[in-house]
Amino acid sequence: MTQHKFSFGLWTVGNVGRDPFGEPVRKTLSPVEIVHLLAEVGAWGVNFHDNDLVPIDASASQKAQIVADFKQALKDTGLVVPMATTNLFGHAAFKDGAFTSNDPAVRAYALQKTMAAMDLGAEFGAKTYVFWGGREGSETDASKNLLEGLKWFREALNFLCEYSNAQGYGYRFALEAKPNEPRGDIFLPTTGAMLGFIQTLDQPEMVGVNPEVAHETMAGLNFTHAVAQAIDAGKLFHIDLNDQNSGRYDQDYRFGAQNYKQSFFLVKLLQDAGYDGPLHFDAHAYRSEDLEGVKDFARGCMRTYEILAEKVKRFNADAEIQALLAQINAPNAEVEPFRGAYTPERAAALKAYQFDRQALGARGLGYEKLDQLTFELLMGAR
Ligand code: GLT
Ligand code: MN
Ligand code: MN
Questions:
Q1: How far apart are CA 207 and CA 198, in angstroms?
Q2: Digit-coded pLDDT (tens) for 115-132
């Protein structure tokens, strides 16, 4: 166990390797087996969808047994359940969405299912509740009134915030964006879109985001920038770490498997900002792997984060890099009076000041050197 709060979903290490073209390649592990596997590799927490733990068609007595067994496994291993969520995408009932389905009965069922899943998560002490609206979207916009869809989504979240408060669960909701897959287009496709939407809710302070590396990358965006915006807004409630190549299907690779440098900048942002929430690896092992390979995958995610966190320390302590950064960010006494909030005097002084535009444009910034030094540091060459 490390100082970082590393967590995995039951669906991550439990992934059996089914894909749109092929059958499972690994055997199904029970939730109890997964908890023991995670403990063996040194994880801190385990997350679940309602139906990862309790099958959708389980009887009341089966459910009671599953819950008791899972509680025992957590007790035996010391693992915690920081986050829970609802499967609102697997069953055919959700083929046209859950909270935004055109069918009012499906929308009502989605609310009912989520309340039950929140009850289940609360039983295990989960404090973060994730909403990934995988089926909230469309293939053809002939089928959807987009404004109604957003309204229904808002109404559902408002209802569930009230439910959490009424039950005294103390959940914080974390909305997870994804641009597409499994829908042709998913509503609110980026973390930025989610951040805008949150401000339209009745209780915006209860709701933040759960950005995922792969999802922003699929959209061709810089994930680290999205996370920075979430931190700036005080909304980084949870994070899904994995890796992804742009322009591909949702790959959910081991954290750091593809983009070493970008993964480093992400870890640097999180570490420097003092993010101390769960670091959830929402990824799965390659389809080529057996059970040992799954453990290698899980250990790899955590080890990569730790190595990058160590590199962040080195970056922050590297004299040459820091000297360059100090030079780049050097203060300028002459323009210092122009900084700060608006005052009529400050505005007047700034308007009257003569800038040397040529000199401003002529200055080299040294970013080539800085980037090369970063690369050398990451490669262990300095
Ligand atoms: C699913 C999805 C993830 C979400 C999970 C939470 S389920 O695996 O691909 O990105 O985080 O619902
Ligand atoms: Mn994903
Ligand atoms: Mn995710």
A1: 7
A2: 999 999 999 999 999 999
Decide: 50 and 120 in contact? Cβ < 8 Å: yes
Distance CA 36, CA 350 (A): 64
In the structure encoding, which two tokens stand for residue 137, read together?
Answer: 């979207």
Q: How far apart are CA 135 and CA 183, in angstroms?
A: 6
Kindly give the distance from the C-alpha atom of residue 257 to the centroid of ligand 2, in angstroms, as a whole number: 14
Give the position of tokens 């800085």.
370
With beta carbons less than 8 A apart as the criterion, state whether 67 and 28 touch.
no
Q: Is 138 in contact with 185 (CB distance < 8 Å)?
A: yes
Q: What is the pTM of this model?
A: 0.97
| Residue corresponding to tokens 């390979």 | 293
Check if the beta carbon of residue 281 is closer than 8 Å to that of residue 6. yes
What is the C-alpha to C-alpha distance for residues 328 and 99, in angstroms, rounded to an integer?
Answer: 48
**Main-chain dihedrals φ then ψ at residue 185, nearest 5 degrees:** -135, 130
Do 128 and 164 form a contact (C-beta atoms < 8 A)? no
Q: Which atom of ligand 1 is nearest to the CA of 132?
A: 12
Alpha carbons 122 and 129: distance in angstroms, whole number:
10
Residues contacting 113, CB < 8 A, separation 6+: 50, 86, 88
Ligand 1 proximal residues by C-beta, below 6 Å: 11, 49, 85, 130, 132, 176, 212, 240, 282
Ligand nearest to the CA of 9: 1
User: Which segments in the chain show pLDDT lower than 70?
Assistant: 1-2
What single-letter amino acid sits at 359? A
Pairwise CA distance, residues 378 & 380, whole Å? 5
**Half-sphere exposure in the Cβ direction for 22 (13 Å, CA):** 8
3-class SS of residue 225: helix
The Cα–Cα gap between 267 and 309 comes to: 6
**Sole residue written with tokens 């994995």:** 242
CA dihedral angle for residue 292, residue 250, residue 173, residue 51, rounded to 10 degrees: -60
For residue 281, give the DSSP letter: E
Which residues make beta-bridge pairs with 172?
128
Active site residue 91: no
List, for residues 277-317, the tens digit of each pLDDT value. Answer: 999 999 999 999 999 999 999 999 999 999 999 999 999 99
Active-site entry in 50, 52, 252, 282? 52
